[in-house]
Every structure is written in C-alpha cells, then in structure tokens.
C-alpha cells in the first residue's frame, strides 16, 4: 500500500494534531525537548527507550517503553511490538504480506507483532480516515 499522498497530507496538518514538543529525560543530557514531528520510532533497549529521530541521531531516554507509551497520544503512536513504538505520521508504506511491516520515513522496516496486526490495521485505517477528513 503506497502512502506517499497520505504522507504529504499528514505533514500539512501534522502541527495541528500533535503537541509541538515532548520532554525527555536522559542520564547524560538531563531534560531535553524533542519535536514530536521528528520522532520516527522508539525502541526498547533493556530498561531504556531509544528515540530514533528525523536527524538520524538516536536519543536514549532513561524511561522505559511502558512509560513512553503512556506519555504519547495513542491516536498517533502505536506499540508495534513488545520492543517498538511507531509514529503513524512517519509511516511511508505498509507491506501487505505477512508478517505485516511498516516502512518508516528513515526506510527502517518495523515488524508488526502477529497479535497486534489486526488492531494496527484498524487503528491505522481510522488514522488515515481522520487525516483525509481534515484535508
């Protein structure tokens, strides 16, 4: 499923739907503000969360993925697996073959957990519907 048109629409209204910044904590940097639009995905690394951002610089947060899941808006972020959260606005494509994969803006391929696939597809379709309704 090619989503390049949806990506363009998403970028157009992105700032209206999400807060501008999220505050993250790190052992080395203390508190850091990160633009929500720049978050591509968040991956678990033991008890830390690694934020992969548009500038290709990972940021390691001292909070775990469960904490980040509660902090982020579930309409726009999805827990793809036990170890990864993805930003719907940063999805470029979704593979139709099983296992379902989300191809992100940085060309990383994120496998959607088998148990979460049906929920992911339903939530993502709802997300696209809302985006199309706003444009």
Architecture blueprint of SSEs:
Elements: H1 4-17, E1 21-26, E2 30-35, E3 39-45, E4 48-53, E5 58-61, H2 65-71, E6 77-81, E7 84-87, E8 91-94, E9 101-104, E10 109-111, H3 117-134
Antiparallel strand pairs: 1-2, 3-4, 3-7, 4-5, 6-7, 8-9, 9-10
In sequence order, what are the helices and strands, one letter per element?
Answer: HEEEEEHEEEEEH
- By secondary-structure content and strand pairing, the structural class works out as alpha+beta
In the CATH hierarchy, the architecture is Beta Barrel
Task: Spell out the CATH superfamily.
Answer: LytTr DNA-binding domain
Count of distinct strands: 10
Q: Spatial order of the strands in the main sheet? A: 5-4-3-7-6
- The amount of beta strand, in percent, is 35-45%
- Rg from alpha-carbon coordinates: 14 Å
The CATH topology label is OB fold (Dihydrolipoamide Acetyltransferase, E2P)
Low-confidence stretches: 1-5
What percent of residues adopt helix (DSSP H or I)? 25-40%
CATH class: Mainly Beta
The geometry reads as globular
Roughly what is the average pLDDT, rounded to an integer?
84
Number of domains: 1
Strand count, sense and barrel status of the largest sheet are:
5 strands, antiparallel
Distance between the termini: 20 Å
């Amino acid at each position: 499923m090619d989503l390049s048109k949806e990506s363009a629409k998403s970028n157009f209204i992105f700032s209206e739907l999400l807060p501008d910044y999220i505050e993250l904590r790190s052992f080395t940097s203390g508190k850091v503000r990160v633009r929500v639009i720049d978050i591509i995905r968040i991956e678990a690394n033991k008890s830390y969360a690694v934020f992969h951002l548009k500038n290709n610089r990972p940021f390691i947060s001292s909070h775990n993925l469960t904490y980040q899941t509660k902090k982020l808006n579930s309409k726009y972020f999805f827990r793809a697996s036990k170890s990864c959260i993805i930003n719907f606005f940063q999805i470029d494509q979704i593979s139709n073959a099983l296992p379902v994969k989300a191809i992100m803006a940085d060309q990383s391929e994120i496998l959607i957990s088998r148990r979460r696939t049906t929920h992911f597809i339903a939530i993502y379709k709802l997300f696209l519907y809302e985006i199309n309704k706003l444009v």
